[in-house]
Write a structure and sequence with these properties.
Layout (H helix, E strand, L loop, with lengths): L14 H13 L4 H9 L13
Length: 53
């Protein structure tokens, strides 16, 4: 049986920190929640290559 993610952790950050974290998550193609979850659990999300159009 798969565990459902139904618990929250709240963290306060500055606007500058939020912008930086969001940018890193976007570069990895991850949502903000998934990026933070991976980093906190010891994973190192990799940036994905996106070709410019």
């Amino acid at each position: 049986m798969e565990d459902k993610r139904n618990k929250s952790i709240y963290v306060r950050v500055t606007l500058k920190e939020k912008i930086k974290i969001n940018a890193k998550a976007n570069k990895c193609g991850l949502s903000l929640s998934e990026y933070i979850r991976q980093v906190c659990l010891g994973y190192e999300p990799k940036e994905i290559y996106r070709r410019n159009k």
